[in-house]
Amino acid sequence: MASFENPIKHQVYLSLPEDMYSPLAPRRVESPSLLALNKALLDEYGLSSNWFEDAKGIHFLAGNGDYDGESPVAMAYAGHQFGHYSPLLGDGRAHMLGQLQNADGAFIDVQLKGSGRTPYSRGGDGRATVGAVVREYLISEAMAGLGIPTTRTLAILGTGESVMRDYQMVPGGIQVRTGTSHIRVGSFQYAYATMGKDGVQALADHLIEHHFAEVASHEDKYPALLEAVAVRQAQLISKWMLVGFIHGVMNTDNMSLVGETIDFGPCAFMDEFKAKKVFSSIDRDGRYAWDQQANIGYWNLSRFAETLLPLFADDSDEAVKIAEDKLQTYIVTFQELFQKGLMTKLAITANSKEADAFVNQALPTLESERIDFTLFFDALTRVANGEEETELLSLFDNQEKGQVWISEWNSLKDDSESALKAMREANPALIARNHQVEKAIEDAMERNDFALFQRLAEALKTPYTVSEENRDLQTPPAPEERVLRTFCGT
Ligand code: AMP
Ligand code: MG
């Protein structure tokens, strides 16, 4: 491909029913600047960075492009927010520019977030802050580094304009987000409510054609779609939980049907392990706490399944039975993956009663001993590979209890090369620590200083190894650095 050419040449969403989107160009901005370009991601896609770094590319991504012929759209969706149904949410500050094609020929959505008001903005200003886009860049790229399916951040831009947040003017930003799809559970809820069976069928056929080819030839393709979506969701949520990630706003409009992490709001990785941990300032009841995420996945999938019922069978009892059966796969898959993942983290492969009891007690022990989740599994991995136990032991509040735990673990762990390799791959040494992310945001917002952002972005690409100069990034927050609440920071 000629490298100075705009690679965003498709718009697959135009084939959906018209109710599902509104064509419109992003808002023009004063003086856009490219704050960061994710060249590693462009490499993954097999694209050169030239066009993106060219003034024309920057203006296109900031909303100042010539969109004639291209078709940016804002997408419509509904959603349950904290359990309450909103019939119309939609992209209130996002524009789907279209799709590029990666080296494999697959379509990749390119969406701007923070690009102006749309018919779905309700009271909102359609903007995002530099802080919010820095946060999403770091966390989405950290997820990718961990091998967890996620939307990505191709670039972040400054708009050169100010945005009002919490009675203060702060710099505005735009995130260039990419992803396999932006169809959400909430998209189906919207299609169901506005168009009924036909709308749902159009969306389901789109998903199958573009993202679930494996069910296309299935005799009962819609129940098969539900099952395939459920399996991907079980895979995703088990992966989140096994690295201590808390999404924070698992509303049905924030659940992507292709099983990628999407809509990073007040999300965070835990420091000290606490099963009921919540960061979000708006999640007062702990609906989206770390240990609730699997249940919420089921709840959201149930809302998805409800929209599909008319496609399952004419008889509603029969349709419900089919849905329940398919959703069962989610429960079984999640439990299996989570349990297996935890065993891998501990390098335990034995299937004895004793091993089961030990594995089941591992996280409660971390909690009662107030141990940092990531440091613990990293230290454990290093001990499994022959390092001294001193550091691992020092993580326990109660040293005696620590001694007992470690010796029991020593007697149960599998020392085979394959178990140790899997253990290393399950236990990152580096996560995007909330206090460091907040510091990077503060530096960027208040001093236009992107040094820590750049450093974190680079280090989080390879979270299973830490270089000597990045050792400090492993450090949990000191008491005064702890971020107790993460605000939506939009
Ligand atoms: P979120 O919590 O980011 O998933 O957003 C929930 C809904 O609010 C979505 O429909 C967003 O498009 C919309 N929204 C969030 N922030 C803004 C904003 N600043 N302006 C307009 N709409 C917004
Ligand atoms: Mg959202």
Short description:
The protein is of the alpha+beta class. The chain has 15 helices and 12 strands. Strands 2, 6, 7, 8, 9 and 10 form a 6-stranded antiparallel β-sheet that branches. The chain has a two-stranded antiparallel sheet with strand order 1-3. It has a two-stranded antiparallel sheet with strand order 4-5.
Explain what this protein looks like in three dimensions.
- This protein has 490 residues and is an alpha+beta fold.
- Among the domains are: 2-179, no CATH class; 185-338, no CATH class.
- Helix content is 44%, strand content 13%.
- It has 15 helices and twelve strands.
- The strands form four sheets. Strands 2, 6, 7, 8, 9 and 10 form a six-stranded antiparallel beta sheet that branches.
- β4 (79-81) and β5 (84-86) form a beta hairpin.
- α4 (130-145) runs antiparallel to α14, α6 (221-242) packs parallel to α8 and α7 (293-312) runs antiparallel to α8 (316-346).
- It is globular and about 70 Å long.
- Magnesium ion binds next to loops.
- Residues 253-254, 263 line the site of magnesium ion.
Keywords:
490 residues; binds adenosine monophosphate; alpha+beta; 6-stranded antiparallel sheet
The set of bound ligands, ions and cofactors reads: adenosine monophosphate, magnesium ion
Largest sheet: 6 strands, antiparallel
Poorly predicted regions: none
Binned strand content: 5-15%
Round the Cα radius of gyration to an integer and report it. 23 Å
Class per helix and strand makeup? alpha+beta
Question: What's the total helix number?
Answer: 15
Shape category: globular
Percent range for helical residues? 40-55%
SSE run: EEHHHEEEEEEHEEHHEEHHHHHHHHH
Distance between the termini: 36 Å
Mean pLDDT: 95
